[in-house]
# Entry
Amino acid sequence: MSNLIFSMNATLPIFLVMMLGYFFRRTGIIDESFAGKMNTFVFKIALPVSLFSQLDSVDFAEVWDAEYVLFCFLATLISIGIAVLVSFIFRDRDVRGEFVQGSYRSSASLLGMAYIENIYGTASMGSLMMLGSVPLYNVMAVLVLSLMNGSGEGLDRKRLKSALRGILTNPIIWGILLGFAWAITGWKMPDMLQTTIIYIGRLASPMGLLAMGASLQFREIRGRLAPILTGSFLKLIGFTALFLPAAVWLGFRKEKLIAALIMLGSASTVAGYVMAKNMNHEGTVSSGIVMITTLGSVFTLTFWIWLLRSMGMV
# Structure
């Protein structure tokens, strides 16, 4: 029961804030224009600043584990490959890019760190997990959303150049790289600047969720149930069942194992929806996967945590 309450405390508020966004849109408090501007702000400012603030003070020299970072990177890369292959079962090419991103991209920064801190009081291994997975999340998301856009065009020089430009100018990637670089320098940021950065970063999750909820179209979601449900299954169950035994076999325990679980089986991130909308995708599949995995993770993460605890591994 305590595990269930813990999981609900971590995940249900996210789902409820998203539903508040839908309610505010229905009552006219938030309109389409305002939701779009919130999306842009979260994508270009709040999310990059949030990621920077989570990395800038981590002592990577003390917590570094190359084998663990490599595991996170390879598990993410293979998951992306599997999702791409599965995406070809859908005839509608417009849904493929969002399906792939929603299937592999976890809420490592917005939700995952809270899980780890709630259990262990620290999230240093979460930072290593993010270093191994989150840059790849974003680089591949730009490629996937650029190249799997339903246009039916091949991978020509123009589209590849556009995708690479998107990677190099992606604010989320820059937030991660700058946070990592600042942490390596060991410099201490002035308190007033640090507090300002933290305040701005805290806007990412609530604003992103409100904007996503305001953009929900349940009629459209009903028409996209196949990719939404398939992506949700891969996100919550498929990849965790595939890679968590490998993490156990490699000897990862406690905080490392929980961080790997969050990477593999936590809810799909709202950042994926924000990025999809900012890259001219419909956003229906992204929002549907986020909504279902956010609610479903209450039960699936409880099960995985219970299983690992019963085996004495966390």
About this structure: The two ends are 17 Å apart (CA to CA). The chain has a mean pLDDT of 84.
